[in-house]
Design goal:
The protein has 1 helix and no strands. By secondary structure, it is mainly α. The protein has one domain. The longest helix is centred in the middle third of the chain and has 28 residues. The chain is rod-shaped. The model has no long low-confidence stretch (mean pLDDT 88).
């Protein structure tokens, strides 16, 4: 249970970081 929670938390933070990075690239190219 604990490892599953940790895993989903890591996935969520990675996705959040990925979104932020995409926004950064998009702004850079604009």
């Amino acid at each position: 249970m604990r490892s599953t929670t940790f895993s989903s938390s890591t996935t969520l933070s990675f996705f959040s970081y990925h979104q932020h990075f995409n926004n950064f690239l998009f702004n850079l190219h604009s």
